[in-house]
UniProtKB/TrEMBL annotation:
Protein name: Coronin
Keyword hit for Repeat: yes
Sequence segments annotated as region (Disordered): 463-517, 1099-1174
Bias-annotated ranges (Basic and acidic residues): 1157-1168
Known function: F-actin regulator involved in anterograde Golgi to endosome transport: upon ubiquitination via 'Lys-33'-linked ubiquitin chains by the BCR(KLHL20) E3 ubiquitin ligase complex, interacts with EPS15 and localizes to the trans-Golgi network, where it promotes actin polymerization, thereby facilitating post-Golgi trafficking. May play a role in the maintenance of the Golgi apparatus morphology.
Organism: Rhodnius prolixus
Ranges in coiled-coil conformation: none
InterPro entries in the cross-refs: Coronin, DUF1899, WD40/YVTN_repeat-like_dom_sf, WD40_repeat_CS, WD40_repeat_dom_sf, WD40_rpt
Subcellular location: Cytoplasm
Family to which this protein belongs: Belongs to the WD repeat coronin family.
One annotated GO molecular function: actin binding
Residue spans of biased composition, Polar residues class: 480-494, 504-517, 1104-1116
Top-level taxon of the source organism: Eukaryota
Gene3D superfamilies for the chain: YVTN repeat-like/Quinoprotein amine dehydrogenase
């Protein structure tokens, strides 16, 4: 019985809380619904979730402290919340993160100097999201993951799966390895805990555990045969169980604590038998010592501080052993990371106390994954923590490519023999990351980008038919200091063209692209230390070269080299058929009145740019400029900006087709004679524009130049409504909505807001009932599953479609008076997919036609009248965004692999054309612009900078413009107003709404006045045009979701005579709230377009300028109908009218008669000055 009275060495271990200066402060941590600890640490770094959605991680040195900037470098890991993370035991810079897939990252030895978004490896198996992951304790580069009910082992060096099994007990909530690495303990959501031996593929022990389906954790107690679990009982009281494998069904120790809602995170140190219990949401961290006999758990000194968001233990190699620090707990709070040191009191801290620090596991593994699977169980050598032995050190072994063994592959046939086949058990759909998928083009492009970014390019052979093509040697890598990479001589570097810097606004197509073979993307790879800009950059005027050619020899050589280097990794850039250019706008060539030439052909664009550079104006234009205006292109310098302005205006006028142009403007670009056919074509264009005045008014032309902004919407103003129109006291707004969902939608009658918590609750609020919501139960639609996306029916304000993670689409009908209580009975349930749904979109013209995308890489169209699948499209990758064209014929989709595709669903299942979108893999958004001529894509580049990209809808191979905005984890959600051609952009968690005018000339995106809100918003949704108040010059109206309110937001244009109807701001608009056909009619080939209406109220008068323009345009049409060829219309300005002139003269005479006019000068009174001198 002597052991009962034996005092523990760690009995008096006390927590020591540092001062605020020694903590990591001023960080933003949200509330994440995950089964992970939200923070992890190695001997060199600590990583933790930041921001509201938790998709990014902050990686800091383990001893870092102080205030942190909001612009500090981050690890942009996933597009969704990072569920779990873990550092390798044998590499302090190797970090694994889990979300929808598992990624392995290498943290440089010096830490993150800039944001990181390119992983070393990506491991995916097309199951649900990864809930937990752990590195093997004795084997290097062996990673275990748990996704849904599947437990998988990965060989990270080969990036292949070596074992997988599926449990019968549901979702795996926790995973832990025995210290010798032979067995793993799993705890599932169905109240079961079991022990798995992967090498024998056996479940050695299984039993019932905690009786609540809430979160649970499991941890192995060192080398012993006991495990410890934490969870909840049936009364939702927190429990701690200790079980012995020899009597697994009966808990050896059962401890009931309290009834708090946060799960207890168990942190166990096998060297000291110290156990720490940190509850999520608790302010206390308990310390207990685990013993071999009763009472098994001996409580120590508790720590009380801030509310806990996550916690982890620091490895022993990072402890301050000379201060008797036996353990250190990193506590993650809402705004800080607190290092809590547990110190054992000693009289002196000069010497090393060996009794407190036994030898611990080192950082060198003797077994690789293949040897371990074959039965090898070599233990990890122990090391001493005594500083005098000099065995404690940080371990940095370079990137994963440096760790991975390099096998010698003689041919492509032997390549498959290098990777071992995975061992699988009880699973049919699990697939390796190297298994061949249907999207070979996407994978080849991704592999090509990764190969160009590595330090040494491995020479591989890519099979192409019966021939083997060897990629050419790429450009030499240039470091930040300007030095050459290994293997590159100075002579080769001098002879190689230098890469040019990436332009911030790519407003023109590269003129050298004619030299590139069709079907391939020509890109310029940039090396060196690129740092993203932290704010939007204004548009800068393009520079006109002095030489006649549009591209220098150096640029052409770079384009040629990059084009040849991309031959082995192609992306399907099949251009759209010729009829798309006319059909995508809702116009058909069968109608003779709508015939318009294609002015956006690639060759024409190149000729226009080259012609502009080689342009020499006629003498009459030089005379108009003035004596100092020499516009000859061979001049070495220009003394005035007037010449540049004149030349630029001439070019802008020449590009404004099909408007009639003068002779000099027509010659400035094309420089070709005008034939009779061209005259007839111009007559048809003139008549078609005059017949459809609304289309002519709506046609976006270039309204801003480099010399001055002249856009009508340049000074648009966003104004929030009065507080009496707010919907207040909106509680528990969800912060964990899917990254593919906009998170907030509205129509003219009501709004839909997703709420946090389980059950997939969607709150419905009526817009005609503003004010403070009661504190009772919020009226919600209970979907019983996690909401992935939702959208209101555009033709029925009562119906809303909700896509869930179980693959179903629930159709709800809101009662006429609004939702008064929670309901869980949907009107209809559609089993759309077998995997979770990403996006849900209604057709813009046809009623009862719904489009869905899913994790199963398909796009499906559903006829809701018959509740059957009408069309299935092949995406070959996960579609994260889609948008219908304004004419309702074409569907644009963006995949997770940054591929933008355009489909004609009624023509076939494969895309008509494909192109490259933003370089990042964190999602995207799409919107059609300028009557379907362009597609605006928002996303991220490789350094997580938010980008806006403009693509031609019939040629997706090369972006027309690319604008970098800023660095933020939230994706930009676009909305396009067709009448004003205004693009609104914002993201969840932003406070700024960015606005651009989309035009059909470079730079294609003209920045307007951005609107800044007083608070952060969680969502933004726009109403249709019938909700706009034209009497206050309101051209767009939106609803903004803040933390606790729904606020109306009005966008207006300042006008002096606001009491008059502004025809130039309000053209005839489409009736988007009425259907034009049924789903059956659309599926049969019908293409009925929307009608247009005028927004002018009956009690408002038109502005005088618009009335005069109408009179003039009517008379001009009558006169031009008798002319053989159109000419420039001669319009009489309002102030040149004789009646107006007569009134002006009368006013001048009356004013001058009342004023005293002194015609004498001051010098007349002076003497001594001659009049000649004056």
């Amino acid at each position: 019985m002597a052991w009962r009275f034996k005092a523990s060495k760690f009995k008096n271990a006390a927590p020591i809380v540092p001062k605020p200066e020694a903590c990591v402060r001023d960080i933003c941590v949200g509330s994440y619904q995950t089964y992970g600890n939200n923070i992890a640490a190695s001997a060199a770094f600590m990583a933790f979730n930041v921001d509201h959605n938790g998709s990014s991680l902050a990686v800091l040195p383990i001893d870092d402290c102080g205030r942190k900037s909001k612009t500090m470098p981050l690890l942009h890991a996933h597009s969704d919340t990072v569920t779990d993370m873990d550092f390798s035991n044998f590499h302090d810079g190797l970090l694994a993160t889990g979300s929808q897939e598992c990624k392995v990252w290498h943290i440089p030895e010096e830490g993150l100097e800039e944001s990181l978004c390119n992983p070393e490896a990506t491991l995916t198996h097309r199951q649900r999201r990864i809930e937990c992951l752990r590195w093997h304790p004795t084997v290097d580069c062996l990673l275990s993951t748990a996704s849904s009910a599947t437990f998988i082992l990965w060989d990270v060096t080969q990036q292949s799966e070596i074992y997988s099994t599926t449990t019968e007990y549901g979702l795996i909530q926790s995973l832990c390895w025995k210290e010798d690495g032979r067995q793993a303990a799993l705890h599932t959501k169905d109240k079961m805990v079991y022990i798995v031996d992967p090498r024998t593929d056996q479940v050695t022990n299984v039993t019932d555990s905690h009786q609540s389906i809430k979160d649970s954790r499991v941890v192995w107690l060192g080398h012993s045969t006991r495990i410890l679990t934490t969870g909840f009982d049936s009364a939702r009281q927190r429990e701690v169980y200790i079980r012995d494998l020899r009597n697994f069904s009966v808990p050896e120790k059962a401890l009931v604590l309290d009834s708090s809602t946060g799960i207890l995170i168990p942190l166990y140190d096998s060297d000291t038998c110290m156990l720490f219990l940190a509850g999520k949401g608790d302010t206390t961290i308990s310390y207990l010592e685990v013993t071999d006999r009763e009472p098994f758990l001996v409580e120590g000194i508790r720590h009380t501080g801030e509310q806990t968001k996550g916690a982890c233990l620091v490895p022993k190699r990072a402890l301050n052993v000379m201060q008797a620090e036996v353990n250190r707990v990193l506590q993650l709070t809402s705004n800080s990371v607190v290092p809590i040191m547990y110190q054992v009191p000693r009289k002196s801290y000069r010497d090393f106390h060996s009794e407190l620090f036994p030898n611990t596991s080192g950082c060198e593994s003797k077994v690789n994954p293949t040897q371990w699977m074959q039965g090898s169980d070599l233990p990890v050598p122990k090391i001493s923590l005594n500083p005098a032995d000099k065995q404690v050190k940080q371990v940095h072994r370079g990137s994963l490519s440096d760790i991975r063994p390099a096998p010698t592959v003689s041919s492509t046939a032997d390549l498959s023999a290098v990777t071992a086949k995975p061992f699988r058990s009880c699973i049919t759909n699990t697939r390796s990351v190297f298994e061949k998928d249907q999207n070979e083009t996407n994978e080849s492009a991704k592999n090509k980008r990764n190969s160009l970014e590595t330090k040494e390019i491995d020479l591989i052979k890519i099979q192409n038919g019966n021939e083997c093509v060897t990629p050419p040697k790429p450009l030499p890598r240039i470091s930040r200091t300007g030095s050459m990479s290994d293997g590159t001589t100075q002579q080769e570097l001098d002879n190689t063209p230098k890469p040019v810097a990436r332009p911030r606004t790519n407003s023109m197509q590269p003129p050298g692209q004619n030299n590139v073979q069709p079907g391939f993307i020509c890109s310029i790879n940039i090396s060196g230390g690129y740092k993203p800009r932290l704010g939007p950059k204004p548009f800068t005027p393009p520079k006109f070269n002095e030489s006649g050619g549009g591209v220098t020899d150096n640029d052409a050589s770079i384009l040629h080299i990059n084009a040849s280097s991309t031959l082995t990794s192609t992306v399907n850039t099949t251009t759209l058929p010729a009829p798309l250019r006319d059909i995508v706008n809702g116009n058909d060539k069968s109608s003779p009145e709508l015939v318009q030439p294609d002015h956006n052909d690639n060759n024409d664009q190149i000729q226009e740019v080259v012609g502009m550079r080689d342009y020499t104006p006629p003498p009459e234009e030089i005379e108009d400029v003035g004596a100092g205006g020499d516009l000859i292109r061979g001049a070495e310098a220009r003394a005035s900006i007037a010449e540049r302005r004149k030349m630029y205006e001439n070019r802008s006028l020449s590009l404004q087709a099909p408007a009639p142009t003068s002779l000099s403007a027509a010659q400035s670009v094309k420089m070709r004679p005008v034939s009779k056919d061209d005259d007839q074509l111009q007559v048809q264009q003139q008549r078609s524009i005059q017949v459809k005045t609304s289309a002519a008014t709506n046609a976006p032309k270039r309204t801003s130049t480099v010399f001055g902004e002249v856009s009508k919407y340049r000074h648009l103003k966003g104004t929030p409504a009065h507080k009496s129109q707010f919907i207040e006291n909106v509680r528990n707004v969800s912060r964990q909505i899917s990254g593919e969902c906009d998170g907030f939608h509205c129509n003219s009658d009501r709004v839909a807001v997703p709420l946090g918590g389980a059950g997939g609750k969607l709150a419905i609020f009526e817009l005609n009932k503003p004010g403070k919501l009661p504190d009772g139960v919020t009226p919600t639609l209970v979907n019983a599953n996690t909401i992935m996306d939702f959208q209101w029916d555009p033709f029925d304000n009562r119906r809303i479609a909700v896509g869930c993670d179980d693959g179903t689409v629930k159709l709800w009908l809101v009662p006429e008076g609004g939702l008064t209580e929670p309901t869980n009975n949907p009107h209809e349930v559609l089993q759309a997919h077998t995997e979770k749904i990403y996006c849900v979109k209604w057709h813009p013209l046809a009623a009862d036609l719904l489009t869905t995308t899913s994790y199963d890489t398909t796009i499906r169209l559903w006829d809701l009248n018959t509740m059957t699948q009408a069309i299935k499209l092949n995406a070959y990758d996960q579609v994260v965004a889609m948008a219908w064209s304004p004419c309702g014929r074409y569907l644009a989709a963006a995949t997770r692999g940054s591929i933008v595709s355009v489909y004609d669903p009624r023509m076939g299942a494969d895309p008509l054309g494909q192109g490259k979108g933003p370089g990042g893999t964190r999602g995207a958004r799409l919107v059609w612009a300028v009557e379907g001529q362009y597609i605006v894509v928002t996303g991220f580049d490789k350094v997580s900078e938010r980008q806006i990209m403009v693509l031609k809808s019939d040629d997706l191979s090369t972006p027309l413009a690319t604008v970098g905005l800023d660095v933020s984890p939230a994706i930009l959600i676009p909305f396009y107003d067709e009448d004003s051609s205004t693009l609104f952009l914002t993201g969840r968690g932003d406070s700024t709404i960015y606005t651009y005018e989309v035009c059909n000339e470079p730079p294609y995106l003209n920045p307007l006045s951005h609107h800044r809100c007083s608070t952060l918003h969680q969502g933004l949704s726009f109403l249709n045009k019938k909700c706009c108040d034209v009497s206050s010059v309101e051209f767009a109206k939106a609803l903004r979701l803040a933390n606790t309110t729904v606020e109306p937001l009005s966008f207006t244009v300042p006008r002096i005579k606001s009491d008059l109807f502004q025809d130039d701001l309000f053209p005839e608009t489409k009736v988007t709230w009425e259907k034009t056909m049924t789903s059956a009619e659309w599926l049969s080939g019908c293409n009925t377009q929307q009608r247009r209406i005028c927004l002018k109220p009956e009690n408002m008068d038109r502005s005088p300028a618009s009335q005069q323009n109408q009179t003039i345009s009517g008379s001009t049409q009558h006169k031009e109908s008798n002319k053989p060829s159109p000419g420039p219309p001669t319009t009489r300005l309002p102030w040149s009218d004789p009646v107006v002139k007569h009134k002006q003269e009368q006013i001048q005479k009356s004013v001058s008669s009342k004023l005293e006019i002194n015609l004498k000068l001051e010098q007349d009174k002076m003497e001594g000055v001659d009049e000649g001198e004056w």
